[in-house]
Design goal:
single chain; 68 residues
Length: 68
């Protein structure tokens, strides 16, 4: 057992944290791209649900988006 090194363990014996760290290390570019696309999608959904779609101001004499 003199040759037994910690990093020489088989992949099946690695902990979950080690496996995730290895996966993110290999796929960091795609994680960043996916996060950016998710952020864009969230902002797009917020913009869809926010106010009028035409972006026109409320005409005088009319109460727009009034909630009691």
């Amino acid at each position: 057992m003199t040759d037994d090194r910690h990093d020489a363990a088989s992949p099946a014996r690695h902990t979950r944290r080690q496996k995730l760290t290895t996966w993110y290390g290999r796929n960091a570019f795609w994680v960043v791209i996916g996060g950016f696309l998710l952020l864009v999608a969230v902002f797009y959904l917020i913009a869809l649900t926010n106010g009028t779609s035409a972006g026109e101001p409320c005409p005088t004499g009319k109460v727009c988006d009034f909630v009691r």
